[in-house]
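Issue 218. Parser rejects a valid record. Input:
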Amino acid sequence: MPTDQMQQLQAWRGHELVDAEGSKIGKIHEIYVDRDTGQPEWLAVSTGMFGTKVTFVPLTGASAQDDRLVSRWTKGQVKDAPNAEADGELSEEEESRLYQHYGLSYGEDRSSSGLPEGQAQARPDTRTDAGHDTSGPNADSAMTRSEEEMRVGTRREQADTARLRKWVETEHVTESVPVQREEVRVEREPITESNRDAATSGPEISEEEHEVTLYEETAVAEKVAVPKERVRLEKDVVTDQEQVEGEIRKERIEVEGDVEPSRDRR
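Output the parser choked on:
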């Protein structure tokens, strides 16, 4: 598709999409193009009461009317379209379900128009009173409602590492120890009968010297390594409570039309 035509088509983003009877379907959120051909194929339309849901509508058969785009598909057909994620690209499974819902033939090959090979024709409304599954193959007459449940548990993983490390530090210590020393004192005693012989055993007049050796104690220190204690690491298990949060999805089923209130079967 030429660039100017693509720009004109992209300009429809934010405009309303209505069906042939003028019923508003929603606002055009984005235009999806075929990855192989580059041709536009789908309109991503914001639908719902608050416009929070995105529904895909085929672009084929759409026509401009003033500032609105008119789709060949009715509002009801669009509302019943199967869900698809508006993440920028439709998967083959999503696209297959959409083509089946809108009654278009789906194939792996693409034509130059961006649609599957063969003429894309709307399928007649074959719904009967027995019920018709518009989002996939027909099943039984019941619809299954499912919801997500949160399953919580624990996972063991490494949180931290603890280790013992020994190092040497020097501390200045002062201790007091008693020491003894010898000192000299002079004693004088008079001559008596008991010491007269010792006093007169030498010459009467002479020169003499007497020497006494003195001793003293000196404080000394000796260092000896003495074991004091043994240290080890032990692990204890502590149980805490943590809150786990998440979002779970629940399917809701509502009834449209003139239907009597349901009765629960026990």
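Fixed in the parser; the record now loads. DSSP finds four helices and six strands in the chain.
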